[in-house]
Structures are given as C-alpha cells and as structure tokens.
Specification:
Aldehyde Dehydrogenase, Chain A, domain 1, Aldehyde Dehydrogenase, Chain A, domain 2, binds magnesium ion, 486 residues, seven-stranded mixed β-sheet, binds NADP nicotinamide-adenine-dinucleotide phosphate
Length: 486
C-alpha cells in the first residue's frame, strides 16, 4: 500500500456519495501485526445514520420495481469489479485484521462467488401454486421485499459476511444500510466501492461507520429499518434482537460457537490431526466455526496427542503478509488480552498446558498482538475454557471412554453452531448426525468450512434459529404474500 492510501480517511457512502461526517472525529485502523496505521475511519453521528436510512427508504421504492434480472445485473457487475480488485482488497483485509494473505484471498474469492450466486437468484422461482378448494380460484404465494435492511457485521470475515448479507438483501428488492465492525471498516468500504463502480442506484446501498453503541444502536432503533441482520457476539446480538423485537422489526442473529471435534477410536488419525489444526488455528482461531474442543476416545488419546503436538510445533506465526507464515496475529490488542486471560483461567482451573500459552515477543513480534498456538489437556466440561467462546488459537483436549460420552460432552455447552467427527464407522456417523445439537455437522472434515449455496447457522444460543446463505436467505430477506384470485 502506498503512503497515500495508508493515511486516507474512509468516508460514509450515503445516497450514492462519499460523505464526511459532521463529527470530524476519526479512528485509526491498525495493523495487528505491527501497529501500522492502515487508514482512518469516521466516528459518525446518529443523524448521519438516520440520513442513510431515509435515503435507503426512498431508493427502495424504485429498486423493488426493477426485475430480479435487472437487480442481478448490478450484482454481476459488482462481482466482476471485486474479482478485478481481489488482490488489493485481500491485502487490505490482512493489514486490518491479520489473517494470512492466502486466507484473505480465499475469502475475497468467496465474496465474488456469493455475489454471482445471488445475481442468479433474481431469475429463480419466487413462490408456489397451492390448490384452492375453490375450483374457480387461483391461489399462489409470492415473495416481497421487507424494505430497508440494516446490516451489522463483525471483523472476522470482513468481505464474506457483509456480502452474504448485502447480496441477498438487494436481490430480493430491499435497500441496505450497513454498519461494519470498526476494526475492518476500510475493507468494507472497499467492497462498497465495487458496488459503486457497478453503478448501483443512489441510496440502495449505504455505509455508515462508527461505534456499535452509537451507529449500531441507532440502526437497531430506527423505525424505518424493517429488518436487522447481525453477526457477532452473543451479548450484542441479544441486545439487538430485543431492540428489534420491541419495535416489531424482523431480526436475524448469528453469534458465537464452542465447536467440538470428536476423534473416535477408529478415526484416520492423520486426517483428524490435520482437520483439528486447520479448524482450530486458521484465522488464529477467530472464526465462529473454529474448533475449540477436541474430544478424544481414550484408546487413541496418547497417539493422537503426540501427532497433534508434533504438527502444532510446525506452525509458523507472524505477519500474515509474509510468505511462509501460517498463522497471523490476534485481530487487535483487546482480542489478545482476552485470549491470554482465558489461558490464565485454564491454568487456574487445573487444566494442563501442553504447548503454547504465551504471547510472542521480541524482534518480529514487537509491535504486534501475537500468541502461540495453545493446547490444554486434562480439561473437563465444567471448566471455563470448555464452556466459553475464546475466539483465539486455543484448544481444550477432553478424554472420554466411549463415543456416547463424546457426544454428551460435545452437547454440554450453550452453543450449537458447528461440530465435527472423525470416524470410519457408519453407525457412529449416523449417531453423531442424529444426536449432535449443531446447525452444521461435519464428518471427516474440520468444524470450520461453509459452502455458500447451503444454509448456515446455529442451534441453541448460537443463533436466532434462522439460517443464512443459499436458498435459506430468502426466508429472512423476504415476506410471503399469499395471493387468492377469483
Ligand atoms: P461484536 O462485538 O458483537 O460486534 C459485532 C458488530 O456489532 C460490530 O459491528 C459492532 O460494532 C457492533 N455493535 C457493538 N455494540 C453494538 C450495539 N450496542 N448495538 C448494535 N451494534 C453493536 O462481535 P465481534 O467481536 O466483532 O465479532 C466476534 C464475534 O462474532 C464472535 O462471538 C463470533 O463467534 C461471532 N461470529 C459469529 C458468526 C456466525 O455466523 N455465527 C460469524 C462470525 C463471527 P463495533 O465496530 O463498534 O465493534
Ligand atoms: Mg485492525
């Protein structure tokens, strides 16, 4: 990145124009690998958020009247622009939140694919014919947009999550106001630039940056926002859900996880080790679907543990922009502190630290927020590190005697986002599929990993029980009209 872009202030995108906030207040977006300033984002005011909502409300009237195909053309164009700028945007993502460049590139490519998937959705079926009891009548359902959709996103997938909310919202005829996580607002602004270059009509898509407590709250409370889609922590999600419910707005919350991987005695251990490492430590463990508990049948415990530790020792930690680095820093200082405090809790509560556990310091790490990939063993289900989402590169090994015990332990948390098992036994696979309380169950595959054409979301406290992506998105972003014609 040039010096110029490094120090640029990124503005709000309001009614088709890049607009400065009246607050005059900006926040530096820092690179967690070295504390460099990536750029500045505005701390906007509630008034600016309200202006964005009112622009979105006006623009939606014409937007909803376009054909699905016409709306889809804008998404196709935005996909092409994003594809062309993929390297630049991926690099920005790595600088803003630390994930390695190959991961950032993969995520950006996914953003392109999501846009193309939903571009086509404008041409797919929007209802059903239902036989009426009246032979002279035609009865059918049709799907209509909700109006203005508020989008609130976290920092861990700065391209994919905004796009997997914006794209379906738009294709079904809604207009959008997005408030991204301040941590990765520059990457989001670059995504919005792709829509601008695609010629999206003014007001259909608006971006307002600022703090969650001001801008996120104002978006939740604005009576002209018909629906809110949120991904982030449970604490914030619940508050947004309550706010939306209080004024009768539709809401969708995707929140935390405490995702287990079960390693059965008959598992391919090499595969299980590989999946555990990838699921737990990619993106520095900062995925809602990251593996954080590894539940192992005692018969293979020692062998599995040995292989796992040997592989973890090979993980290279550093600046995600550098070649040969496998794991980047935590996304910011407060995230690092949270991770270290969970490690301390693990030690205090009697878990045994097997490897890692420390902040990385010295030379290459000096100004960054790096922590070692960490494994605890002798973990039991009551311990804090077995219950709470850490959102960092920390796993808890739990030993069990039987597969039944494994599933019981796996379910013994308030979350239910994703779960995985390694086994070669078909009966074990089927029991796992049936008994596991999770929205995503994966067999002989890591807990993290989402395909954009399939429903995504959690059970229990991981979600508001709605689903995102694929065809499931239609349920949230539209309302059903039942039509009766005589
Ligand atoms: P977060 O703190 O909940 O923030 C998420 C978003 O909400 C940010 O844009 C934040 O703004 C905003 N916000 C904060 N307070 C608000 C308020 N009072 N009203 C409205 N909005 C408010 O979460 P995070 O730390 O960014 O992300 C990590 C969490 O996301 C983890 O728990 C992870 O599991 C979860 N996650 C879940 C999924 C899933 O699909 N289930 C996917 C990815 C991540 P700021 O910019 O001010 O922070
Ligand atoms: Mg940052």
């Amino acid at each position: 990145m040039t010096i110029e872009t490094k120090t640029k202030t990124y503005l709000n995108f309001l009614n088709g124009q890049w607009a400065a906030s009246s607050s005059g207040e900006v926040q530096a977006s820092l690179n967690p690998a070295n504390s460099d300033v990536v750029g500045y984002v505005q701390m906007s005011t509630k008034e600016e958020l309200d202006q964005a909502v009112s622009a979105a409300k006006s623009a939606q009237i014409a937007w909803r009247k376009l054909s699905g195909n016409e709306r889809g053309n804008y998404l196709h164009k935005a996909a092409n622009v994003l594809e062309r700028k993929a390297d630049e945007i991926a690099e920005c993502m790595t600088r803003e939140m630390g994930k390695t460049l190959p991961e950032a590139k993969g995520e950006t490519a996914r953003g392109v694919a999501i846009l193309r998937y939903y571009a086509g959705e404008g041409m797919r079926k929007a209802g059903d014919v239902i036989p009426s009891t009246d032979r002279k009548a035609l009865m059918f359902t049709s799907r209509v947009p909700l109006g203005v959709v508020g989008v609130i996103t976290p920092w861990n997938f700065p391209v994919a999550i905004p796009i997997w909310k914006i794209a379906p919202a738009l294709i079904y005829g809604n207009s959008v106001v997005i408030k991204p996580a301040q941590e990765t607002a520059i990457t989001c602004a670059k995504v919005i630039e792709c829509f601008e270059e695609a010629g999206i009509p003014a007001g259909v898509l608006n971006l307002v940056t600022g703090s969650g407590s001001v801008i996120g709250q104002a978006l939740t409370d604005n009576p002209d926002v018909n629906a809110i889609t949120f991904t982030g922590s449970n604490e914030v999600g619940k508050r947004i859900g309550q706010g939306a419910l209080a004024r009768g707005a539709k809401y969708q919350l995707e929140m935390g996880g405490k995702n287990p991987v079960i390693v059965a005695a008959d598992a391919d251990l090499e595969l299980a080790v590989e999946g555990t490492i990838s699921g737990a430590f990619k993106s520095t463990g900062q995925k809602c679907t990251a593996t954080s508990r590894v539940i192992v049948e005692s018969k293979v415990y020692e062998t599995f543990k040995e292989k796992l530790v040997a592989k973890v020792k090979e993980i290279t930690v550093g600046d995600g922009l550098k070649e040969g680095i496998w794991m980047g820093p935590c996304a910011n200082e407060s995230q690092l502190k949270t991770v270290l405090s969970y490690i301390e809790k693990g030690n205090q509560e009697g878990a045994a630290l097997l490897i890692g556990g420390k902040q990385l310091t010295g030379d290459a790490y000096e100004k960054g927020f790096f922590v070692e990939p960490t494994i605890f063993e002798n973990v039991t289900s009551e311990m804090t590190i077995a219950q709470e989402e850490i959102f960092g590169p920390v796993i808890a090994l739990i030993q069990v005697d039987t597969l039944l015990d494994a599933i019981e332990v796996a379910n013994d948390v308030k979350f239910g986002l994703s779960a995985s098992i390694y086994t070669s036994n078909i009966q074990s696979m089927l029991s796992f599929v049936e008994e596991m309380e999770a929205g995503l169950v994966r067999i002989n595959a890591e807990s993290a990993g989402v395909e954009l054409q399939a429903p995504f979301g959690g059970m229990k406290q991981s979600s508001s029980h709605s689903r995102e992506q694929g065809e499931a998105a239609k349920e949230f972003f539209t309302a059903i009209k039942t039509v009766f014609i005589k």
